[in-house]
Design a protein that fits this description.
2 domains, globular, alpha/beta, 35% helix
Length: 225
């Protein structure tokens, strides 16, 4: 073998090795780029607050209050249903022709992603509870392959649903505009709630990248224990 051919072989192996090292470095950076712990939120501006999980300040930090609704099977759903659970919540209505079908598709993806995680649940509130009876919700659930042990579609008192959505989950983006139950609640936002009823993230349910980020954040939240 000539010296020239030998040098070509060595150069090629070096370049191949360099490319592989470059790819490995990129993967390692991506794998370590996520935060180790998600922030906490307590207002509609979603300003992040950072606490250690055992911080005493969390005792008085914003939480989702107690509630009681009826799901698609006619069962009572309340805070005890989600005790020691992480859950993802949104607001929809069964006759929505616009954003709700896509939101439901995103929720269906989340349902599939966490199908084997018993500590992850989904909660969808109807914003037209007078129309969306348990029977109508159950028909909607059947059409959209909703698994009742994983995903609760709920109806109930309109005042309570709208108060939770606007004043506790902060799902609307019309900051500074005072609204009541006569002002329709319509939003594409998904909210991530931890096992202690704290808000840990808000995501656009119509955006695939945002939903992927939600999945990643759930995995991060699970590591908190």
């Amino acid at each position: 073998m000539t010296t020239k051919k030998w040098l070509l072989i060595v150069s090629s192996l070096f370049l191949l090795s360099s490319c592989n090292d470059s790819k490995t470095t990129t993967v390692e950076k991506e794998a370590t780029s996520r935060v180790n712990q998600l922030p906490y939120y307590n207002d509609a501006f979603f300003t992040p607050h950072w606490f250690e999980t055992a911080n005493d300040s969390l005792k008085d930090f914003h939480k989702i209050p107690d509630y009681s609704f009826t799901n698609q099977l006619g069962a009572t759903i309340d805070q005890n249903t989600f005790k020691d659970k992480i859950y993802i919540t949104d607001f929809f209505f069964t006759t929505c022709p616009g954003i709700c079908p896509q939101m439901t598709l995103s929720m269906t993806e989340l349902q599939a992603e966490f199908a084997d995680d018993a500590d992850i649940l989904l909660l969808s509130h109807s914003v037209t509870p007078d129309f969306d009876t348990p029977e109508i919700l159950n028909n909607y659930a059947d059409r959209n392959n909703v698994h009742p042990e994983k995903w609760h579609l709920v109806t109930g008192d309109k005042d309570q649903i709208y108060n939770l959505g606007r004043n506790y989950y902060f799902v609307e983006e019309d900051l500074g505009i005072k609204k009541d139950k006569d002002d329709f609640l319509h939003t594409e936002n998904f909210v991530l709630i931890d096992k202690n009823k704290h808000i840990r993230g808000i995501y656009n349910g119509l955006n695939k990248s945002s939903v992927k980020q939600l999945i990643a954040d759930v995995r991060t939240l699970q590591k908190e224990g």
